[in-house]
């Protein structure tokens, strides 16, 4: 069967290939510790699951739900944005529910990018920014995130011609895969640039609630006037350990919300009400449980940073998100290193190049793995590195 030409724009999934290799190793009896995918291992707290059960017991919660999410779900995000960032949002015009933020990230390009339009994406960066833009026929311009700049963009270094042709620019802080964080000043600069060149600015912010050592990340929507040119994506996948539940949101510019809602109404038919009722509970209920959750991630972060350093590699200690970005020795092929680590130590990491050419020479280690397994993985890594040297 011949697929449509546009399918050629989509990259093969790295994780599908990796999962196949891990299956083979497991069949050979290898105990693989997965630290590649960014999926939380911990469940949401019981009060969220209880809210799902209660709602599912109601006879009226099983039909289609409104496009863009139930009013209560959107209102809960508005409350979250007000409480957490001091950002006021109209639940009826400036917020739109998503079945996970990934679908919205992909669809934003379908709704706004014409063939030949430039889409500026962080490099390294989350792959869906590029996949959506390419699927829409857009031209990718990479915005390098370099270690020397703490993985922050250098807007002044972007080619003015590309900026003039840009339709969309993506930012993501706290950052996947580097773990970098940004100050509000970075967002102020980005909003000014979007205004100057007339492109849509999109900030992807699923990690703002996973932070360490007292760090509190800002929202891009805190920048005065940001809503004129920008939208922000958020998600409960990491915030509330609800990755499989598929709960996201887009917030900000009302025209973008309206156009995206029109696209979504042709693709999806709402989301199961008990899931969004549980999400409403997650957003409006007790938030203190996250302190303990973040303490777990923090312990793992410290184990990984110490572990990779013991294996002779370099890594900064991230202030947020669930990744440690590991720099390999100069000239090391990250894909070959990850394969050797998997085969030799049974530890699975993501090669940096999966996130774009700027990721070459790095590995991303995810912290969504039980702490005792993280400890074991780091011991195995150190032993393997010692044997290999
Ligand atoms: C930066 C970033 N954006 C978006 C997503 C997608 O999250 P969701 O589960 O809400 O689709 C992820 C998931 O790993 C991510 O790392």
Any descriptors?
389 residues, alpha/beta, 7-stranded mixed β-sheet, 4-stranded antiparallel β-sheet, globular, binds pyridoxal-5'-phosphate
Quick structural overview:
Helices cover about 40% and strands about 15% of the residues. It has about 400 residues and is α/β, with parallel strands linked by helices.
Describe the protein's architecture and organization.
- It is built from 13 helices and 13 strands.
- With 389 residues, the protein is of the alpha/beta class.
- α3 (71-85) runs parallel beside α10 (273-284), α4 (101-112) crosses α9 (254-267) and α11 (289-310) runs parallel beside α13.
- The longest helix is centred in the last third of the chain and has 22 residues, at 289-310.
- The N and C termini lie far apart (49 Å).
- The mean pLDDT is 96.
- Bound molecules: pyridoxal-5'-phosphate.
Rg, nearest Å: 21 Å
Strand content: 5-15%
Order of helix and strand elements from N to C terminus: HEHHEHEHEHEHEEHEHHHEEHEEEH
Described by strand count, sense and barrel closure, the largest sheet is: 7 strands, mixed
> How far apart are the first and last residues' alpha carbons, in Å?
49 Å
Total number of beta strands = 13
Helical residues, percent = 40-55%
Ligand list: pyridoxal-5'-phosphate
Label the overall shape: globular
| Derived structural class | alpha/beta
Cross-sheet strand order for the largest sheet: 2-8-7-6-5-3-4
The residue ranges in which pLDDT falls below 50 over 5 or more consecutive positions are: none
- Mean pLDDT across all amino acids: 96
